[in-house]
Amino acid sequence: MPDGSCQSLSSPTSQSSVGDPLRDCHPSCFMIDTHCHLHDREFFTAEQAEAMIERAHKNNVKRIICIGTSHEDSLKAAEFAKEHNNVYWTYGIHPEETASVMLYSGPRPSGPSPWADGAIPSLRSRVPRGERAAALRNAPNIASTEAPIAIGEVGLDYHHDGYDREAQIKLFEQMLQLAVDNDLPVSFHVREAFEDFFGVVANFPKVRGVVHSFSDSKKKLKRILETTDFYIGVNGLATYSTLPLPPLERILLETDAPFLTPTPFRGIINEPAYVPCIADWLSKKMDVSLETIEKETTRNAEKLFNFSDTVL
Ligand SMILES: [Zn+2]
Questions:
Q1: Does residue 20 belong to any structural domain of this protein?
Q2: Residue 240 CA to its chain's centroid (Å)
């Protein structure tokens, strides 16, 4: 991709020759899709997912983080990560899934509470409480097969009528405690709920993370940047909107595939291979070289997620 153009990407719709290196790049200069749902069979067949991983590699996207949105979905992400090198999973219950969880959140141990004998204990058996064991950190690929790399996506979403504010906050707090207990970063989902978000995270000063798919005002962005150390997840949405952008040292690249396909591929299903489109767009928008965008955003992601394996 010598001209930095997105058009030459290997994609189901492009004519570029699959198998050819798309760019002459330093080995360390690869990209990471820090947020996608490739493991979700509601959106992708197993065959599609395989092909997408292959295309991602050809397009220099070498690490892929599959984000869990419910207990069951997180375990599916874990299975998918186990089957693929350099694919990772996160454990999270999306705020829109709050109702399903809170049904079981009665006093412990009565009832089939996932808090008592489901979600949390099974996670804790994977990740020793209070530590991600040094052995896990150092062994090649074990992080992608055994432990979640983060907690997420978790947060607050007041977009749809009928949401239960109290319940969402309670679940969010439990998820943040889980992150603290396991020393894991967090992928935040926040929509139309930043006031409460700031209130909740203020009580968890040890939490580090990324505000995935930020889509709010300049003022809110400024407040995140000034009052927290959180990164901001930038995806295809930025390429066709007028969202405010954080400085490069706070940006993580993500696709949120299958959603939010960046230009020039809008209208077809999103996939990790399109991360370079976002990098390319940022490079032009920020007037910074593509290589710098790649290196900086990859470094940011490596710092936050603390990958322990080598890129294959
Ligand atoms: Zn997502």
A1: no
A2: 20
> Residue 54: is its pLDDT beyond 60?
yes
Distance 40 CA to ligand 1 centre (A): 11
277, 281, 282, 288 alpha-carbon torsion, rounded to 10°: 110
What is the residue range of 107's domain? 29-305
Q: If you measure from the C-alpha of residue 153 to the centroid of ligand 1, how many angstroms do you get, rounded to a whole number?
A: 7
Span 92-104, pLDDT tens digits: 989 998 876 654 4
Residue 299 domain flag = yes
In a domain, 52, yes or no: yes
Q: Compute, in angstroms, the gap from residue 38 CA to the centroid of ligand 1.
A: 10
What's the total number of domains in the chain? 1
- How many angstroms does the Cα of residue 290 sit away from the middle of ligand 1? 25
The CATH number for 299's domain is 3.20.20.140
C-alpha of residue 67 to centroid of ligand 1, in Å: 6
In a domain, 5, yes or no: no
> pLDDT (tens digit, 9 = 90+) per residue, 154-203?
999 999 998 999 989 988 998 898 888 888 999 999 999 999 999 999 99
DSSP β-bridge partners for residue 91: 151
- Quickly tell me which residue has 């940006």 as its tokens: 251
Phi, psi of 201 (to 5 degrees): -65, -25
**What does pTM read for this prediction?**
0.82
Whole-number Å distance, alpha carbon 105 to ligand 1 midpoint, is 24
